[in-house]
Amino acid sequence: MADITVMGAGIFGLSVAWSCVQRGARVRVIDPFGPGAGASGGVVGALAPHVPENWNDKKAFQFESLVMAGAFWGGVAEAADLSPGYARLGRVQPIMDEAGLTLARRREQSARDLWLGKAAWRVERAEGEWMPVSATGYVIRDTLSARLHPRRACAALVAALRARGAEVLHEGAASGQVIRATGVAGLEELNAAFGRLVGNGVKGQGAVLAYDARDLPQIFADGVHVVPHEDGTVAVGSTSERDYDEPASTDAQLDEVIARAVAAVPVLDGARVLERWAGLRPRARSRAPMLGPHPLRRGEFIANGGFKIGFGMAPGIGQVMADLVLEGVDHIPEGFRPEASL
Length: 342
What we know:
342 residues; oxidoreductase activity; Glycine/D-amino acid oxidase; oxidoreductase; 2 domains; 16 strands
């Protein structure tokens, strides 16, 4: 019998399961579609912070989670003997006009105040081949952003869980405390029960290019993430589509993303497209994760709504959900509670 049953083997479900296993709980994870079958099986893997200003609980939580990520993924890699592709190599963003340059320099100071010396946000000259086009000749470089390979990260979590005696199954009976991390399907269940929009799936498209920049920072330019991975590829993405007919198909919108990535980072010109990916990311109405007691299922819990920041939030979400479910200690930010989206 399990102490904890996690329904859903995306990044939230697997991370919560891992945090519970680390505290000695017997854990079972059940997902009929297998680990990383939804949005967590994507290709981009950008772990990036909010801008260091207008601080709130969501930004603070994400900051702390990004700071925790090195130890979190290092522990997973050691237990699994498998790399999740994690590396904290920072991020570069072009500064396109004088107003942006003034704002970026002001944020240097706010980062010193808010990031507590754990990371830096700096304005630098745009120098070197691996740089985005910058109209001012300057870029922002932060040292907090990191990358991982989404599919490898899910595979590493599964291997780590099994190495510690947890079960990861396609089907089975729930026992003990139940945590539902079922992504878009879980949000649709809430929509139907409450008769209004609680959350929805937002389609994203991304691509993998054959270009080796594995030890270089990610780039964010013209709304596109350009993320080098340790396997010698670069991932680019993504779209945010609320209206779609085919959630798993790619189209001309991805072609535009690739073109914008190449225009922003010219060294990618001519890089072969190895893979095109599309899928749905679960977005709660509040735009924050939904964590806490399940709104429909008495005695159960929910961890949903990762949207674009699920991997970046995962270490912190695993910790607070384990606190709540195993120890009855509630450290969940107010804005993350399910009622914020109901």
